[in-house]
Amino acid sequence: xxxxAKMEELTRKQEEARSGxxxxxxxxxxxxxxLTARERANLLFDSGTFQEIDSYMIHGCxxxxxxxxxxxxxSVVIGYGKVNGCMVYxxxxxxxxxxxxxxxxxxxxxxxxxxxxxxxxxxxxxxLDSGGARIQEGTDSLDGYGDIFTRNTLYSGxxxxxxxxxxxxxxxxxxxxxxxDFVFMGIGIGQSYITGPAVVKAVTGEDVSLEDLGGAIVNxxxxxxxxxxxxxxxxVFVAVRKLLSFLPQNNQELAxxxxxxxxxxxxxxxxxxxxxxxxxxxxxxxxxxxxxxxNADFFEVHQRFARNFIVGFARIDGRSVGILAQxxxxxxxxxxxxxxxxxxxxxxxxxxxxxxxxxxVDVPGYMPGTDMEYRGIIRHGAxxxxxxxxxxxxxxxxxxxxxxxxxxxxxxxxxxxxDICYAWPTAEIAVMGPEGAVDxxxxxxxxxxxxxxxxxxxxxxxxxxxxxxxxxxxxRGAIDDVIxxxxxxxxxxxxxxxxxxxxxxxxxxxxxxxxx
Length: 516
Fold this sequence. Notes:
By secondary structure, this protein is of the alpha/beta class. The protein has 20 helices and 17 strands.
Protein backbone atom coordinates (compact mmCIF):
# COMPACT_ATOMS: atom_id res chain seq x y z
CA UNK A 1 0.00 0.00 0.00
CA UNK A 2 1.45 3.39 -1.02
CA UNK A 3 2.14 5.98 1.63
CA UNK A 4 -0.75 8.14 0.41
CA ALA A 5 -3.17 5.29 0.89
CA LYS A 6 -1.76 4.58 4.33
CA MET A 7 -2.17 8.23 5.30
CA GLU A 8 -5.73 8.19 4.01
CA GLU A 9 -6.43 5.11 6.12
CA LEU A 10 -4.89 6.82 9.18
CA THR A 11 -7.05 9.89 8.65
CA ARG A 12 -10.14 7.73 8.26
CA LYS A 13 -9.37 5.79 11.43
CA GLN A 14 -8.69 8.97 13.40
CA GLU A 15 -11.99 10.45 12.30
CA GLU A 16 -13.80 7.22 13.17
CA ALA A 17 -12.27 7.22 16.67
CA ARG A 18 -13.15 10.88 17.23
CA SER A 19 -16.74 10.30 16.15
CA GLY A 20 -17.54 8.21 19.26
CA UNK A 21 -20.92 6.56 18.85
CA UNK A 22 -21.71 8.51 15.69
CA UNK A 23 -23.45 11.73 14.76
CA UNK A 24 -26.89 10.62 15.89
CA UNK A 25 -25.69 9.62 19.36
CA UNK A 26 -23.69 12.84 19.68
CA UNK A 27 -26.77 14.85 18.75
CA UNK A 28 -28.75 13.00 21.42
CA UNK A 29 -26.03 13.78 23.98
CA UNK A 30 -26.14 17.46 23.08
CA UNK A 31 -29.95 17.43 23.32
CA UNK A 32 -29.52 16.50 26.99
CA UNK A 33 -27.24 19.56 27.36
CA UNK A 34 -24.30 17.22 27.82
CA LEU A 35 -20.96 17.24 26.04
CA THR A 36 -19.00 14.37 24.53
CA ALA A 37 -15.83 12.99 26.10
CA ARG A 38 -13.48 14.86 23.75
CA GLU A 39 -15.42 18.12 24.13
CA ARG A 40 -14.96 17.77 27.88
CA ALA A 41 -11.25 17.12 27.42
CA ASN A 42 -10.98 20.44 25.59
CA LEU A 43 -12.58 22.20 28.57
CA LEU A 44 -10.25 20.58 31.11
CA PHE A 45 -6.89 20.91 29.42
CA ASP A 46 -4.93 23.94 28.30
CA SER A 47 -5.67 24.59 24.63
CA GLY A 48 -3.94 22.18 22.27
CA THR A 49 -2.18 20.14 24.96
CA PHE A 50 -4.41 17.06 25.28
CA GLN A 51 -2.80 13.90 23.92
CA GLU A 52 -5.20 10.98 23.55
CA ILE A 53 -3.85 7.44 23.76
CA ASP A 54 -5.31 3.96 23.18
CA SER A 55 -7.91 5.40 20.80
CA TYR A 56 -8.10 2.24 18.65
CA MET A 57 -8.87 -0.33 21.34
CA ILE A 58 -12.14 -2.25 20.96
CA HIS A 59 -14.07 -4.65 23.16
CA GLY A 60 -13.63 -8.39 22.82
CA CYS A 61 -17.14 -9.50 23.76
CA UNK A 62 -18.74 -12.07 21.44
CA UNK A 63 -21.98 -12.73 23.32
CA UNK A 64 -25.44 -11.26 22.60
CA UNK A 65 -24.36 -10.18 19.13
CA UNK A 66 -21.75 -7.76 20.50
CA UNK A 67 -19.15 -9.00 18.02
CA UNK A 68 -21.12 -7.19 15.30
CA UNK A 69 -20.73 -3.74 16.87
CA UNK A 70 -17.44 -2.05 17.66
CA UNK A 71 -16.39 1.55 18.19
CA UNK A 72 -12.74 2.56 18.15
CA UNK A 73 -11.65 3.49 21.65
CA UNK A 74 -14.77 1.83 23.10
CA SER A 75 -16.60 3.73 25.87
CA VAL A 76 -13.79 5.79 27.39
CA VAL A 77 -11.29 8.37 26.18
CA ILE A 78 -7.96 8.54 28.02
CA GLY A 79 -4.93 10.79 27.74
CA TYR A 80 -2.77 13.48 29.26
CA GLY A 81 -2.02 17.16 28.86
CA LYS A 82 -1.40 20.38 30.71
CA VAL A 83 -3.73 22.14 33.13
CA ASN A 84 -2.47 25.56 34.23
CA GLY A 85 0.82 24.54 32.64
CA CYS A 86 1.17 21.37 34.76
CA MET A 87 0.84 17.73 33.68
CA VAL A 88 -2.50 16.05 34.38
CA TYR A 89 -3.82 12.62 33.35
CA UNK A 90 -7.52 12.02 32.71
CA UNK A 91 -10.18 9.66 31.50
CA UNK A 92 -13.58 10.58 30.09
CA UNK A 93 -16.41 8.08 29.83
CA UNK A 94 -18.14 8.38 26.45
CA UNK A 95 -21.91 8.00 26.83
CA UNK A 96 -22.44 7.89 23.06
CA UNK A 97 -20.75 4.48 22.99
CA UNK A 98 -22.88 1.79 24.63
CA UNK A 99 -24.15 4.36 27.14
CA UNK A 100 -20.66 4.77 28.54
CA UNK A 101 -20.95 1.29 30.08
CA UNK A 102 -17.80 -0.16 31.60
CA UNK A 103 -16.35 -3.00 29.53
CA UNK A 104 -13.23 -5.03 30.21
CA UNK A 105 -11.25 -2.94 27.75
CA UNK A 106 -12.65 0.35 29.11
CA UNK A 107 -11.54 -0.66 32.61
CA UNK A 108 -8.10 -1.55 31.26
CA UNK A 109 -7.80 1.89 29.69
CA UNK A 110 -8.86 3.65 32.89
CA UNK A 111 -6.41 1.58 34.94
CA UNK A 112 -3.64 2.36 32.50
CA UNK A 113 -4.06 6.12 32.77
CA UNK A 114 -4.23 5.88 36.56
CA UNK A 115 -1.02 3.84 36.60
CA UNK A 116 0.66 6.43 34.38
CA UNK A 117 -0.43 9.24 36.69
CA UNK A 118 0.96 7.47 39.75
CA UNK A 119 4.18 6.42 38.03
CA UNK A 120 4.86 9.93 36.76
CA UNK A 121 3.58 11.76 39.84
CA UNK A 122 0.71 13.87 38.51
CA UNK A 123 -3.00 14.33 39.31
CA UNK A 124 -5.64 12.17 37.67
CA UNK A 125 -9.12 13.40 36.75
CA UNK A 126 -11.94 10.97 36.01
CA UNK A 127 -15.06 12.19 34.19
CA LEU A 128 -17.98 9.84 34.77
CA ASP A 129 -20.98 9.49 32.49
CA SER A 130 -22.00 5.86 32.36
CA GLY A 131 -24.92 3.48 32.55
CA GLY A 132 -22.81 1.17 34.73
CA ALA A 133 -21.31 -2.25 34.12
CA ARG A 134 -21.72 -3.66 30.60
CA ILE A 135 -24.20 -6.45 31.25
CA GLN A 136 -23.22 -8.37 28.13
CA GLU A 137 -19.72 -8.94 29.53
CA GLY A 138 -20.86 -10.40 32.84
CA THR A 139 -18.28 -10.49 35.60
CA ASP A 140 -15.55 -9.09 33.32
CA SER A 141 -17.06 -5.64 33.72
CA LEU A 142 -17.49 -6.09 37.47
CA ASP A 143 -13.87 -7.21 37.78
CA GLY A 144 -12.93 -4.00 35.97
CA TYR A 145 -14.55 -1.95 38.73
CA GLY A 146 -12.53 -3.86 41.30
CA ASP A 147 -9.31 -3.05 39.45
CA ILE A 148 -10.25 0.64 39.38
CA PHE A 149 -11.18 0.73 43.08
CA THR A 150 -7.88 -0.91 43.98
CA ARG A 151 -5.95 1.79 42.16
CA ASN A 152 -8.08 4.54 43.70
CA THR A 153 -7.09 3.13 47.08
CA LEU A 154 -3.40 2.45 46.44
CA TYR A 155 -2.84 5.85 44.85
CA SER A 156 -4.79 7.72 47.53
CA GLY A 157 -2.36 10.15 49.12
CA UNK A 158 0.14 9.58 46.29
CA UNK A 159 -1.37 11.81 43.58
CA UNK A 160 -4.49 13.99 43.79
CA UNK A 161 -7.56 12.20 42.42
CA UNK A 162 -10.56 14.19 41.22
CA UNK A 163 -13.90 12.81 40.02
CA UNK A 164 -16.30 14.76 37.81
CA UNK A 165 -19.82 13.32 37.59
CA UNK A 166 -21.56 14.54 34.43
CA UNK A 167 -24.12 11.84 33.86
CA UNK A 168 -25.49 8.75 35.56
CA UNK A 169 -23.25 6.99 38.07
CA UNK A 170 -24.98 4.09 39.76
CA UNK A 171 -24.35 0.91 41.70
CA UNK A 172 -20.71 -0.10 42.03
CA UNK A 173 -19.66 2.80 39.79
CA UNK A 174 -20.30 5.28 42.62
CA UNK A 175 -17.49 3.91 44.74
CA UNK A 176 -14.63 5.14 42.60
CA UNK A 177 -15.65 8.79 43.10
CA UNK A 178 -16.26 8.09 46.78
CA UNK A 179 -12.64 6.98 47.24
CA UNK A 180 -11.16 9.91 45.34
CA ASP A 181 -10.22 13.21 46.96
CA PHE A 182 -12.80 15.57 45.43
CA VAL A 183 -16.08 15.06 43.60
CA PHE A 184 -17.63 17.60 41.23
CA MET A 185 -21.19 17.25 39.91
CA GLY A 186 -23.17 19.12 37.29
CA ILE A 187 -26.57 20.30 38.53
CA GLY A 188 -29.27 18.62 36.48
CA ILE A 189 -26.54 16.75 34.61
CA GLY A 190 -24.93 14.29 37.00
CA GLN A 191 -26.55 11.70 39.24
CA SER A 192 -24.99 9.40 41.79
CA TYR A 193 -26.90 6.70 43.66
CA ILE A 194 -26.57 3.06 44.67
CA THR A 195 -29.98 1.96 43.42
CA GLY A 196 -32.36 3.85 41.12
CA PRO A 197 -35.89 5.06 41.86
CA ALA A 198 -37.52 1.87 40.55
CA VAL A 199 -35.55 -0.36 42.92
CA VAL A 200 -36.13 2.03 45.82
CA LYS A 201 -39.86 1.90 45.11
CA ALA A 202 -39.87 -1.90 44.93
CA VAL A 203 -37.87 -2.43 48.12
CA THR A 204 -38.99 0.42 50.42
CA GLY A 205 -42.19 1.70 48.83
CA GLU A 206 -40.72 5.22 48.55
CA ASP A 207 -41.56 7.35 45.52
CA VAL A 208 -38.55 9.50 44.64
CA SER A 209 -37.34 11.21 41.48
CA LEU A 210 -33.89 10.69 40.01
CA GLU A 211 -32.78 14.19 41.03
CA ASP A 212 -34.19 13.91 44.57
CA LEU A 213 -32.51 10.55 44.99
CA GLY A 214 -29.07 11.20 43.55
CA GLY A 215 -28.86 14.60 41.90
CA ALA A 216 -26.01 17.03 42.39
CA ILE A 217 -27.78 19.19 44.97
CA VAL A 218 -28.80 16.20 47.10
CA ASN A 219 -25.26 14.82 47.03
CA UNK A 220 -23.76 18.22 47.82
CA UNK A 221 -26.12 19.12 50.68
CA UNK A 222 -27.59 16.02 52.33
CA UNK A 223 -25.11 13.17 51.91
CA UNK A 224 -21.97 15.24 51.39
CA UNK A 225 -20.87 12.83 48.65
CA UNK A 226 -20.17 15.75 46.30
CA UNK A 227 -17.79 18.57 47.22
CA UNK A 228 -18.91 20.86 44.39
CA UNK A 229 -22.18 21.26 42.48
CA UNK A 230 -22.25 23.67 39.55
CA UNK A 231 -24.91 24.48 36.96
CA UNK A 232 -23.03 23.96 33.69
CA UNK A 233 -20.24 21.76 32.40
CA UNK A 234 -18.18 24.84 31.56
CA UNK A 235 -18.39 26.05 35.17
CA VAL A 236 -17.55 22.59 36.44
CA PHE A 237 -14.29 22.45 34.50
CA VAL A 238 -13.38 26.04 35.39
CA ALA A 239 -13.68 24.99 39.04
CA VAL A 240 -11.67 21.79 38.49
CA ARG A 241 -8.88 23.82 36.92
CA LYS A 242 -8.93 26.26 39.84
CA LEU A 243 -8.78 23.47 42.41
CA LEU A 244 -5.76 21.98 40.65
CA SER A 245 -4.00 25.35 40.85
CA PHE A 246 -3.88 25.03 44.66
CA LEU A 247 -2.53 21.47 44.69
CA PRO A 248 0.92 19.96 44.28
CA GLN A 249 1.52 17.39 41.57
CA ASN A 250 2.06 14.58 44.09
CA ASN A 251 2.88 13.79 47.71
CA GLN A 252 6.59 14.48 47.26
CA GLU A 253 6.15 18.07 46.10
CA LEU A 254 4.79 21.37 47.32
CA ALA A 255 2.10 23.37 45.59
CA UNK A 256 3.48 26.01 43.26
CA UNK A 257 4.35 29.33 44.87
CA UNK A 258 2.47 32.11 43.13
CA UNK A 259 3.81 35.64 43.63
CA UNK A 260 1.19 38.04 44.92
CA UNK A 261 0.74 41.79 44.94
CA UNK A 262 -1.03 41.52 48.31
CA UNK A 263 1.22 43.12 50.93
CA UNK A 264 2.62 40.66 53.48
CA UNK A 265 2.69 43.50 56.04
CA UNK A 266 -0.94 44.46 55.48
CA UNK A 267 -2.91 45.30 58.64
CA UNK A 268 -6.70 45.12 58.59
CA UNK A 269 -8.60 47.64 60.70
CA UNK A 270 -11.88 45.91 59.83
CA UNK A 271 -10.86 42.84 61.84
CA UNK A 272 -11.34 44.84 65.05
CA UNK A 273 -15.08 45.05 64.57
CA UNK A 274 -16.19 41.71 63.11
CA UNK A 275 -16.54 39.70 66.33
CA UNK A 276 -19.59 41.02 68.26
CA UNK A 277 -19.30 41.99 71.90
CA UNK A 278 -22.12 39.59 72.76
CA UNK A 279 -20.81 35.99 72.97
CA UNK A 280 -24.06 34.65 71.53
CA UNK A 281 -24.34 36.93 68.50
CA UNK A 282 -23.41 35.36 65.15
CA UNK A 283 -20.99 36.79 62.59
CA UNK A 284 -19.61 35.64 59.25
CA UNK A 285 -16.26 33.89 59.67
CA UNK A 286 -15.69 34.14 55.91
CA UNK A 287 -15.17 37.88 56.34
CA UNK A 288 -12.20 37.15 58.59
CA UNK A 289 -10.81 34.55 56.18
CA UNK A 290 -11.09 36.87 53.17
CA UNK A 291 -9.38 39.72 55.00
CA UNK A 292 -6.41 37.52 55.96
CA UNK A 293 -5.71 35.57 52.76
CA UNK A 294 -4.25 36.88 49.50
CA ASN A 295 -6.68 39.09 47.58
CA ALA A 296 -9.76 37.56 49.26
CA ASP A 297 -9.43 34.59 46.89
CA PHE A 298 -10.96 31.75 48.92
CA PHE A 299 -11.82 28.51 47.13
CA GLU A 300 -14.36 26.89 49.41
CA VAL A 301 -14.81 23.10 49.44
CA HIS A 302 -18.04 21.36 50.52
CA GLN A 303 -19.77 24.73 50.64
CA ARG A 304 -23.31 23.28 50.75
CA PHE A 305 -22.61 20.53 53.31
CA ALA A 306 -22.21 20.93 57.10
CA ARG A 307 -22.37 24.70 56.76
CA ASN A 308 -21.45 25.18 60.42
CA PHE A 309 -17.88 24.37 59.37
CA ILE A 310 -15.81 25.97 56.61
CA VAL A 311 -13.00 24.29 54.67
CA GLY A 312 -11.22 25.40 51.53
CA PHE A 313 -8.02 26.51 49.85
CA ALA A 314 -6.37 29.90 49.69
CA ARG A 315 -2.94 31.47 49.41
CA ILE A 316 -1.21 33.44 52.09
CA ASP A 317 1.79 35.39 50.80
CA GLY A 318 1.76 33.22 47.69
CA ARG A 319 1.76 29.88 49.54
CA SER A 320 -1.10 27.44 49.16
CA VAL A 321 -2.82 26.68 52.48
CA GLY A 322 -5.82 24.73 53.70
CA ILE A 323 -8.27 26.85 55.67
CA LEU A 324 -10.53 25.41 58.37
CA ALA A 325 -12.95 27.39 60.52
CA GLN A 326 -16.19 27.34 62.41
CA UNK A 327 -19.06 29.32 60.91
CA UNK A 328 -21.01 31.05 63.73
CA UNK A 329 -23.72 31.95 61.20
CA UNK A 330 -24.89 28.32 61.20
CA UNK A 331 -25.69 26.34 64.35
CA UNK A 332 -23.34 28.68 66.24
CA UNK A 333 -20.39 26.85 64.67
CA UNK A 334 -20.95 23.77 66.83
CA UNK A 335 -19.11 20.56 65.94
CA UNK A 336 -21.58 17.88 64.92
CA UNK A 337 -21.18 14.58 63.07
CA UNK A 338 -21.16 16.02 59.53
CA UNK A 339 -18.81 18.88 60.44
CA UNK A 340 -16.37 16.47 62.09
CA UNK A 341 -16.33 14.19 59.04
CA UNK A 342 -15.96 17.12 56.66
CA UNK A 343 -13.11 18.71 58.60
CA UNK A 344 -11.22 15.47 59.32
CA UNK A 345 -11.19 14.44 55.66
CA UNK A 346 -9.94 17.87 54.60
CA UNK A 347 -7.17 17.84 57.23
CA UNK A 348 -6.01 14.42 56.04
CA UNK A 349 -5.98 15.49 52.39
CA UNK A 350 -3.89 18.57 53.14
CA UNK A 351 -1.50 16.57 55.30
CA UNK A 352 -1.09 13.92 52.58
CA UNK A 353 -0.10 16.61 50.05
CA UNK A 354 2.08 18.90 52.17
CA UNK A 355 -0.41 21.77 52.38
CA UNK A 356 -0.13 23.79 55.63
CA UNK A 357 -3.24 24.14 57.77
CA UNK A 358 -4.56 27.49 59.01
CA UNK A 359 -7.44 27.14 61.47
CA UNK A 360 -9.80 29.85 62.76
CA VAL A 361 -11.54 28.79 65.96
CA ASP A 362 -14.88 29.85 67.39
CA VAL A 363 -16.39 26.66 68.75
CA PRO A 364 -18.94 26.37 71.57
CA GLY A 365 -18.46 22.61 71.78
CA TYR A 366 -19.74 19.35 70.32
CA MET A 367 -23.42 19.14 69.48
CA PRO A 368 -25.43 17.69 72.41
CA GLY A 369 -28.54 15.54 72.18
CA THR A 370 -29.72 11.97 71.83
CA ASP A 371 -29.70 12.10 68.02
CA MET A 372 -26.00 12.94 67.97
CA GLU A 373 -25.13 10.43 70.69
CA TYR A 374 -27.08 7.58 69.09
CA ARG A 375 -25.59 8.25 65.66
CA GLY A 376 -22.07 8.18 67.07
CA ILE A 377 -20.77 11.69 67.60
CA ILE A 378 -18.10 10.21 69.86
CA ARG A 379 -16.75 8.14 66.99
CA HIS A 380 -17.18 10.85 64.36
CA GLY A 381 -15.82 13.61 66.59
CA ALA A 382 -12.76 11.48 67.28
CA UNK A 383 -11.94 11.55 63.55
CA UNK A 384 -11.12 15.24 63.81
CA UNK A 385 -8.92 14.69 66.85
CA UNK A 386 -7.16 11.86 65.04
CA UNK A 387 -6.65 13.86 61.85
CA UNK A 388 -5.17 16.94 63.51
CA UNK A 389 -2.94 14.91 65.84
CA UNK A 390 -1.69 12.75 62.97
CA UNK A 391 -0.94 15.67 60.64
CA UNK A 392 2.72 16.65 60.31
CA UNK A 393 2.32 19.69 58.06
CA UNK A 394 2.66 23.20 59.55
CA UNK A 395 -0.41 23.96 61.69
CA UNK A 396 -1.30 27.51 62.74
CA UNK A 397 -4.50 28.40 64.57
CA UNK A 398 -6.24 31.60 65.67
CA UNK A 399 -8.96 31.60 68.33
CA UNK A 400 -11.27 34.49 67.51
CA UNK A 401 -13.92 33.94 70.20
CA UNK A 402 -15.13 30.73 71.86
CA UNK A 403 -12.99 27.63 72.38
CA UNK A 404 -14.73 25.40 74.87
CA UNK A 405 -14.10 21.90 76.17
CA UNK A 406 -13.09 18.97 74.01
CA UNK A 407 -13.94 20.96 70.89
CA UNK A 408 -11.18 23.45 71.83
CA UNK A 409 -8.71 20.57 71.99
CA UNK A 410 -9.93 19.21 68.64
CA UNK A 411 -9.34 22.46 66.76
CA UNK A 412 -5.61 22.28 66.10
CA UNK A 413 -4.68 22.93 69.72
CA UNK A 414 -1.09 22.68 70.91
CA UNK A 415 -2.01 19.43 72.64
CA UNK A 416 -2.73 17.92 69.21
CA UNK A 417 0.71 19.12 68.03
CA UNK A 418 -0.46 22.46 66.72
CA ASP A 419 2.69 24.46 65.95
CA ILE A 420 1.55 28.02 66.63
CA CYS A 421 -1.68 28.90 68.44
CA TYR A 422 -2.77 32.53 68.54
CA ALA A 423 -5.78 34.11 70.21
CA TRP A 424 -7.51 37.44 69.85
CA PRO A 425 -8.33 39.47 72.96
CA THR A 426 -11.98 38.49 72.39
CA ALA A 427 -11.15 34.79 72.87
CA GLU A 428 -12.78 32.74 75.62
CA ILE A 429 -10.89 29.52 76.31
CA ALA A 430 -12.35 27.28 79.00
CA VAL A 431 -13.70 23.85 79.84
CA MET A 432 -17.18 25.16 79.14
CA GLY A 433 -18.99 28.47 78.73
CA PRO A 434 -19.38 30.70 81.81
CA GLU A 435 -23.11 30.00 82.03
CA GLY A 436 -22.70 26.23 82.17
CA ALA A 437 -19.67 26.42 84.43
CA VAL A 438 -21.50 28.56 87.00
CA ASP A 439 -24.47 26.19 86.99
CA UNK A 440 -22.11 23.31 87.81
CA UNK A 441 -19.66 24.98 90.18
CA UNK A 442 -22.10 27.13 92.15
CA UNK A 443 -25.13 24.85 92.28
CA UNK A 444 -25.46 25.10 96.08
CA UNK A 445 -24.94 28.85 96.20
CA UNK A 446 -27.60 29.41 93.55
CA UNK A 447 -30.05 27.16 95.36
CA UNK A 448 -29.49 28.98 98.66
CA UNK A 449 -29.62 32.50 97.16
CA UNK A 450 -32.58 34.78 97.81
CA UNK A 451 -32.16 36.11 94.26
CA UNK A 452 -30.78 33.26 92.12
CA UNK A 453 -30.97 35.20 88.83
CA UNK A 454 -28.95 38.13 90.17
CA UNK A 455 -26.46 35.85 91.88
CA UNK A 456 -26.04 33.78 88.74
CA UNK A 457 -25.44 36.86 86.57
CA UNK A 458 -22.78 38.10 88.97
CA UNK A 459 -21.04 34.74 89.14
CA UNK A 460 -21.09 34.41 85.35
CA UNK A 461 -19.41 37.78 84.99
CA UNK A 462 -16.79 36.88 87.59
CA UNK A 463 -16.09 33.55 85.89
CA UNK A 464 -15.80 35.18 82.47
CA UNK A 465 -13.30 37.75 83.75
CA UNK A 466 -11.22 35.18 85.61
CA UNK A 467 -11.24 32.17 83.31
CA UNK A 468 -12.98 32.84 79.99
CA UNK A 469 -10.22 34.91 78.44
CA UNK A 470 -7.09 34.16 76.45
CA UNK A 471 -4.63 35.29 79.10
CA UNK A 472 -5.23 32.44 81.51
CA UNK A 473 -4.60 29.96 78.68
CA UNK A 474 -1.55 31.96 77.55
CA UNK A 475 -0.10 31.92 81.07
CA ARG A 476 -0.33 28.13 81.01
CA GLY A 477 1.32 27.91 77.58
CA ALA A 478 -1.78 26.69 75.73
CA ILE A 479 -1.72 29.86 73.62
CA ASP A 480 1.53 31.16 72.11
CA ASP A 481 0.45 34.78 71.90
CA VAL A 482 -2.56 37.04 72.27
CA ILE A 483 -2.43 39.18 69.15
CA UNK A 484 -3.93 42.36 67.80
CA UNK A 485 -6.60 41.17 65.34
CA UNK A 486 -5.33 43.71 62.80
CA UNK A 487 -2.00 41.83 62.68
CA UNK A 488 -3.49 38.40 61.99
CA UNK A 489 -2.27 38.17 58.40
CA UNK A 490 1.22 39.30 59.36
CA UNK A 491 1.41 36.83 62.27
CA UNK A 492 0.27 33.89 60.15
CA UNK A 493 2.74 34.73 57.38
CA UNK A 494 5.62 34.92 59.87
CA UNK A 495 4.58 31.62 61.45
CA UNK A 496 4.37 29.83 58.11
CA UNK A 497 7.77 31.21 57.10
CA UNK A 498 9.24 29.85 60.33
CA UNK A 499 7.61 26.46 59.75
CA UNK A 500 8.83 26.02 56.17
CA UNK A 501 11.59 23.68 57.36
CA UNK A 502 9.41 21.71 59.78
CA UNK A 503 10.41 18.03 59.75
CA UNK A 504 8.26 15.66 61.81
CA UNK A 505 7.96 11.93 61.30
CA UNK A 506 5.28 9.84 62.95
CA UNK A 507 6.19 6.49 64.57
CA UNK A 508 6.85 3.70 62.08
CA UNK A 509 3.71 1.70 61.34
CA UNK A 510 1.70 0.25 58.49
CA UNK A 511 -1.07 2.80 59.04
CA UNK A 512 -3.18 4.17 61.86
CA UNK A 513 -6.71 2.98 62.61
CA UNK A 514 -8.82 6.13 62.32
CA UNK A 515 -12.22 5.67 64.05
CA UNK A 516 -14.33 5.19 60.94
